[in-house]
Amino acid sequence: MSEPILEFDDVDIEYSTRGDNAVHAVNDASFAIEEHDYFGLVGESGCGKSTIADAIVGGLDENGEVTSGAIRFKGKEIQDYSEKQFNKEIRWKEISVIPQSSMNSLDPVMKLSQQAVEMAKYHTDLSKAEAVDRLRDLFDVVGLSESRIHDYPHQFSGGMQQRAIIAFSLFLRPSLIIADEPTTALDVIMQDQILDHINELKDDWNISMLMITHDISVVFENCDSMAVMHGGQVAEAGSTVDVFDRPRHPYAILLQNAFPDVRYPDRELAVIEGHPPQLREKPDFCTFADRCPWSTDECYDGAPDPQPIEGDESHMAWCVRAHEMEELAAEHLEKPPEASSILEGSR
Ligand SMILES: Nc1ncnc2c1ncn2[C@@H]1O[C@H](COP(=O)(O)OP(=O)(O)O)[C@@H](O)[C@H]1O
Ligand SMILES: [Mg+2]
């Protein structure tokens, strides 16, 4: 297998807070994004998804820090890069981010074409005309009219601004694009259209994508592989087909059953009771244990180690009962039909 484009290796991320214990937002997180893959990171609000995205581009809030483990991009450790190094080597050029709230990321006093010229001047040897041409092509890619490239951002609706930002995120031909909950600003149909457009470039440019969302069905529809997070810990990771056909972490199982599923229109949706714990210390237990119908004393006895799941070697579940879960879950839940047949049909 080729080297992953991005690798999280046992990463801890903390936010220091004045006069209180630090927030342990991400703990022992491990996952890998293979080159050319669309990777989905899913989990409910507050589980640490944006913290992971921010850490990858050196964009953690002032009080945030990667306190242990390694983040490797194309094999190089980047977790200790300075802001200057990130700006010079990584941001936009190699990894670009489509942010969760994008309204402030365009310069309000500059025409979009001028912003492209500035970006090209700083990062490339393109001429002004070439920079404008490139933006024009990208407007086409994201479904904006090319005639609008000389507009100011305020002349665009919110949805159009979001598309313009996506065009800029593609401008320097990065190898990894991080989309942090783009659905919150884009409606679903628009999102599908844009993904279709990006998919057209995927092969030419060898693009990989980290797609962050709280909606597991978005991952199911769009991603090759995925990780499910709960309470600052990775719960399960693997190919999308494996995680859907053979989920082995209770949270992944329940999450899948908590969303409407085209494969199973009449199913009653499972409700996941309770909340993840506040993490003011590094958790030495499974953060899902309190909410888990199958938890035992062992779940509170140390953070769970990854259990390889039979089949593809990338499929892991961080659950001490992973190997019993198929049986345990079958007693509680109706199992939907296999995902692989449906995925093949839709691709
Ligand atoms: N700057 C910060 N200072 C303190 N805590 C923070 C900060 N940013 C995020 N957090 C906390 O870190 C945890 C993870 O947040 P986040 O990564 O934004 O989650 P998600 O994107 O999954 O909703 C949450 O408990 C959140 O309150
Ligand atoms: Mg977030």
UniProtKB/TrEMBL annotation:
GO terms for biological process: peptide transport. Gene3D superfamilies: P-loop containing nucleotide triphosphate hydrolases. Its main location: membrane. This is ABC transporter ATP-binding protein. InterPro entries: AAA+_ATPase, ABC_Ni/Peptide_Import, ABC_transporter-like_ATP-bd, Oligopep_ABC_C, P-loop_NTPase. Keywords: ATP-binding, Cell membrane, Membrane, Nucleotide-binding, Plasmid, Transport. It comes from the Archaea. One of its GO terms (cellular component) is plasma membrane. It is found in: Cell membrane. It comes from Halorarum halophilum. It is a peripheral membrane protein. The keyword Aminoacyl-tRNA synthetase does not apply. PROSITE patterns: ABC_TRANSPORTER_2. Pfam families: ABC_tran, oligo_HPY.
